[in-house]
Amino acid sequence: MKSLGLALLLIPALAIAFEPLNTDDAGTVRSGSNQIEQYFFSINRRGGSQQSDIVTPGEEYTGNADAKAFPFTYTRGLSDTVEASISTTYYSSPSGNYSRLSNYVFASKWRFLEDEQLGYALAIKPTVVLPASKQQQVEGLGLAAFNYGANFIASKYWDGIELHLNAMYMRSPYNTNYSIGHAADNSRTDIFLLSLAPVWTVAPNIRIALDVGATTNPPANDQYLSYYSLVAAIFSINESIDLGLSYMRTAQSFGASIGAQEVGATRTEVGITWRF
Q1: N- to C-terminal Cα distance for the chain?
Q2: CB-based contact 263:252 (threshold 8 Å)
Q3: What angle do CA 207, 213, 216 make, to 5 degrees?
Q4: Cα angle vertex 59, ends 54, 60, to 5°?
Q5: Three-class SS of residue 9?
Q6: Is 141 left (phi over 0), alpha (psi -120 to 50) or beta?
Q7: Torsional sign, CA 275, 233, 209, 58
Q8: How far apart are CA 147 and CA 132, in angstroms?
Q9: Of 32, 58, 93, 151, which residue is 20 to 30 A from 135 by alpha carbon distance?
């Protein structure tokens, strides 16, 4: 993006969405247009840690083993300020006597305020998550209950840099007759997430990003908050296709998520966004 004016014009067309970041932006897919995000992620557990990872809300992986999966999101622009999306995740591992497709997530984002002169936009994104199966809950691929939430999104745009802030709440009940990720401990059902992501345009077709956040730790017997730090790069092949990659560390303190200390888990993600 070569100027602030151009950046503002591209807010609906070049929405970062979640992938490969965790933090969403206030942009929406252009009215009548479509967007597909197809990614692959690999989660590595350190010492069997069961700390929840920050993925698309409703698709957190809470198993105690490593995981490999393909998250997919389809988004349709309903108007110049409203979009709707459906997401699901296919797990190649772990696997067992259950469907490899995890919870279906339905969402709609409304950019309700935008000031082109000051370069900012505000949006709200309600989310509904269909229940996973009981065995998927046991393996940590989802929660066997109806979940819902909302994300408040604020974005600020300058020449060559963007800043995105998310404040999210998820109501996450589960089937209390079954364990979550093979852990019998109770889990919190009120989940809060606060995250911040600056994004820099370092070349006409290259953006880099940092993404940091804190979230309610689901296991009720663990400390209340856990933290993550993520670095990402987005390469625009053309106006319609972006390639993205990211690396994330989760830990019980923010310093551990960015330092040399051992972390609870790491996630590597790579994929493509196609707008048409």
Answers
A1: 20
A2: no
A3: 150
A4: 40
A5: helix
A6: alpha
A7: positive
A8: 10
A9: 151
